[in-house]
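User: Please run a holo structure prediction.
Assistant: Happy to. Please share the sequence and the ligand.
User: Here you go; the ligand is SAJ.
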Amino acid sequence: MPLPDLLKKIENNEARMGVIGLGYVGLPVACLFAEAGYDVIGIDIRKDRIDQINAGVSPIKGKEPGLADLLSRVVDSKKLRASIQYNDLSDRDVIIISVETPVDETRTPRYEALKAALRSLALVMKPGALIIVESTVAPGSINEIVEPILSESGGKKVSQDFFLGYCPERVMPGRLIANLQQMSRVVGGDTPETAEIMVNLYRKIVHADLDPVDCVTAELVKTVENAYRDVQIAFVNEVALICESVGGDVWKVRELVNKSPGRHMLLPGAGVGGHCIPKDPWLLAYGVKDKPVPLRVIPAARGVNDFMPRHMADLVGQALQAAGKEIAGARVLVMGYAYLEDSDDTRNSPSETLAQSLLEMGAEVIIHDPFVTGYQGDIINKASGCDAVVVMVRHREYQQLDLRGLKSALKLPILVDGRGVYQPQKVYEAGLDYWGVGLSKQT
Ligand code: SAJ
């Protein structure tokens, strides 16, 4: 179908849509386009997820305001239906792909899910279909991986027999619907005309800037924005390590540095977790793997942030040693296993690295997290008989913790603070010895 005809169908909400990958990105997108009036078919490989969705039940864990009601409404109105059959996409005018694109331990993107989806789609997609990738990919992937698979296995030519775009998402767990509606997006098209058509499409669900660009620019924006945050965090973590060794207080230093115009130091801490910040810098780096570009800052920042959970284990060791206790055989309570405060999401959690380090040092590790199944329970009970606690996440519950109660439960009164949750003075007043990231023991 020529682009002008597709534009008309989009404007009249008559374009038939498909979404491949009904996870925390694809499902909300499918629901929002269905709510906007489009007929949407969602494709997933997990039968249990398909059955849940067709029963109007959200398979997404955690609190996602608005998603469950929206899903049941659009399934009831038959605007959205889920299927396992790629053939159901054969009459679709627009197909969005939002499958996982993880990075493996060698920091190489794993595109298996994306390539499988593309190969299946290429065999069924109708002439003139608009294919939009939303998954985060390394710069160059749309042109070097996505387009060839759709062209070769489908015997079609891009910008002629089908149209191709890249529109990365800026969702966050806990705010999936809100972010999709309120966050601006770059909209990458294989041609400027395609990008404009995509802007008209996303305008139906996005009430923020939609910036039409080429696909490479869109790939760069997404990976750079997260690599940028990772470098910012690494910088303040390195300053924390400096403060610890020279008798400084990183929180005071940060507060005063940020008084200087144009300075915005982020928060030092026990490490960087989550589904995007630890991964996207490596996707950006992968985009230049065969190019003569000597990457120093981006890999180094990853190294600093990956070191922080191990540094927390060292701080625990130092604290125990100062109390005359070896870490081998010590019982340590890790407070917080999610990667982010007031979340149940444990993907790439720094606490996982910390627990591993403590075990390697011979400690016995107890874990508490009010949001993570299996680690919930009364924290004072969990602390009883422990030789130290280490705070890894700023959960609200921890900010209101009864420090005196904690002290009475512990065998040794040691608290190691990885997120600057507590005022050291308050901790001392409760009878606990305070150790904190970015604080020298002399302070
Ligand atoms: N962290 C720090 N210091 C900071 C900020 C974060 O150590 O100053 C740590 C957190 O504890 C966490 C990790 O980094 O372990 C990631 O935290 P995050 O606040 O970046 O939260 P994410 O991972 O959910 O990042 C998302 C990203 N959004 C998308 O990819 C759409 C990121 O681009 C946003 O900047 C971020 O949310 C945000 O601003 O909240």
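The two ends are 70 Å apart (CA to CA).
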